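Quick one:
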Amino acid sequence: MATTVTIAQDATREIDLGNSTGMSIAAPGAKASVHVDYQKPAGSGNYSSAIKGSAGYGNPFTVSAGGTKAVPKTDLESEHVRVGASDAGITVTY
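Output:
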């Protein structure tokens, strides 16, 4: 069963994708800049981009107002990620 969380503008949230195949990130109100990162190495408190270079899109990326962006787990360096939003709030379904 999918989980949906809301992330406010200028906030972040830790997400464990577990058995999920990835995330769907929506910007319901206005255009949002979204970043996805992870602790490297785990537990260090140091964060690095979680989007693989081979994914074909950058980090941060933009989600248009009313739009969604699919982020498959295969595009990520880790299934334990931190997702953040700038410019507007977002919802993440995973």
